[in-house]
Automatic annotation (TrEMBL):
It comes from Rotaria magnacalcarata. GO terms for biological process: maturation of SSU-rRNA. InterPro entries: TBC1_cilium_biogenesis (IPR051570), WD40/YVTN_repeat-like_dom_sf (IPR015943), WD40_repeat_CS (IPR019775), WD40_repeat_dom_sf (IPR036322), WD40_rpt (IPR001680). Keywords: Repeat, WD repeat. This is WD repeat-containing protein 3. GO terms for cellular component: Pwp2p-containing subcomplex of 90S preribosome; small-subunit processome. One of its GO terms (molecular function) is snoRNA binding. The keyword Repeat applies. WD repeats lie at residues 116-157, 158-199. The keyword Glycosyltransferase does not apply. Transmembrane segments: none annotated.
Length: 429
């Protein structure tokens, strides 16, 4: 009698030695009521989300979906975490997976509270509203969905993009959603009527990331080596924006029912020739970080609104003085020389120990910007940047960070049959 050959089925059991996965779209800092240097950051690590303490360089917690990781008999596979987002009140963690599912974790109970099934493809971006009651998600299926965390249901779906969504941001002063896509467009959505009221179509390549400074200046990054800037003028406020924005090219009419007017401000050329991976602005809107799939990031200083007004007033007074000293009598309006360097100025370039995958910023009490970067060498690099040292036009700063386990993603582990010891060969050896 011939016995049938038996096969043992092996399934994933546990992952160790990983700080952050190479497919993560972002990392998220835990909101803090005080601007202390002790911060915590959420990092996607394969199918889990790890919470790291930046002061002690230790792992505090791990968030994993127990339902999908333990039901082996139902043949459920573990999905990789792509994007994470923390609510402003610090109570919920939103996790977007590769299969299009969004899971909401309670940070107090350390368990999944609700699952959202509305997207058909990978989640690419997540963001909470100011009151932490609504979650906005974008996916590769070209849809944007607003989710209500109280009723645990979807509110509405926004359709209009023809390519995967790359990033979604929210305005603080207006109920406006700003979305970017690989279809080379940026759309502005009114959340009250769920309607797109403006589209930027001037980009000639895929738009990979966007950022908003002072709720007035929009920054876009594409596949080329330029950063483009746009002014967002609110039509609902009576604020004097004479020394905040350049003169309007087209006069406002009463027929315009839009929330904001969009005006191009110009562009800046980056040093990197590769596409932009992400644009990040800190919590005080003082530093703009730009990085691609390289080992260095470019950092721009953002002027405050008072600084912008002061600089424009000085230029206005100089222009008026030149007119008064001249022989010609011109009654036309005095024109101010406007350029984007009034607001955004390149401070430095920081080189990290590996290619950057994700980054986040926060400003402490001493106006020192803390930079947290997840690299493809399985490390979290932490750096500090003093934005007041403007006499340095170019800086290369060394960084310190969290590093455990293999320092390269190209590794080959193996076991010894006799004693079960584990050995690993990495590309860094």
């Amino acid at each position: 009698m011939v016995l049938t050959k038996q096969y043992d089925r092996h399934v994933p059991e546990k992952v160790f030695g990983i700080i952050g996965s190479g497919n993560a779209n972002n990392i998220a800092l835990l909101p803090s009521t005080t601007k202390s240097s002790a911060r915590r950051v959420f990092v996607p690590a394969c199918e889990n989300v790890l919470l790291w303490d930046l002061k002690t360089h230790s792992q505090i917690n791990k968030f994993v979906d127990e339902a999908s990781s333990t039901s082996v008999s139902k043949k459920k596979t573990r999905e990789e975490v792509i994007v994470v987002s923390v609510s402003p009140n610090g109570k919920h963690l939103a996790v977007g997976y590769q299969n299009g599912i969004i899971k909401i974790f309670s940070l107090t109970q350390n368990e999944t509270t609700v699952n959202f099934h509305g997207h058909k493809s990978t989640i690419t971006t997540l963001i909470f509203t100011q009151h932490s009651a609504t979650l906005i998600s974008g996916s590769k299926d070209t849809d944007i969905i607003a989710w209500d965390l109280i009723t645990e249901a979807g509110l509405y779906r926004l359709r209009g993009h023809k390519a995967p969504i790359t990033k979604v941001i929210l305005m603080e002063s207006q109920p406006v959603i700003i979305s970017s896509s690989k279809d080379m467009t940026i759309k502005f959505w009114d959340m009250t009527i769920q309607h797109c009221f403006h589209t930027i179509v001037t980009h000639r390549t895929e738009v990979w990331s966007i950022a908003l400074a002072h709720d007035r200046y929009l920054v876009t990054g594409c596949s080329d080596n330029e950063l483009r800037f746009f002014a967002l003028r609110s039509t609902k406020t009576d604020e004097d924006d004479t020394f905040v924005f350049p003169p309007m090219q087209d006069e406002k009419t009463n027929e315009d029912q839009v929330l904001i007017h969009v005006q191009s401000l110009g562009s800046l050329v980056r040093k990197s020739k590769q596409r932009v991976s992400n644009l990040i602005i800190d919590n005080e809107s003082r530093v703009l970080a730009c990085h691609g799939m390289e080992s260095f990031g470019e950092f721009f200083r953002i002027a405050t609104i008072d600084e912008v007004r002061t600089r424009l007033r000085k230029r206005f007074l100089k222009a008026r003085k030149r007119r008064e000293n001249g022989d010609e009598k011109n009654e036309e309006e005095i024109k101010i020389d406007w350029d984007i360097s009034l607001i955004f100025t390149l401070m430095c370039e920081i080189k990290f120990d590996g290619k950057i995958r994700a980054m986040d910023l926060f400003m402490d009490t001493n106006m020192i910007c803390k930079i947290i970067a997840l690299t493809l060498s399985n490390k979290i690099d932490i750096s500090s940047l003093n934005i007041e040292l403007l006499e340095f036009s170019l800086l290369f700063l060394k960084v310190n960070g969290i590093k455990i386990g293999p320092q390269n993603i190209n590794s080959a582990p193996g076991t010894n049959r006799s004693n079960g010891n584990l050995a690993e060969k990495g590309g860094c050896c």
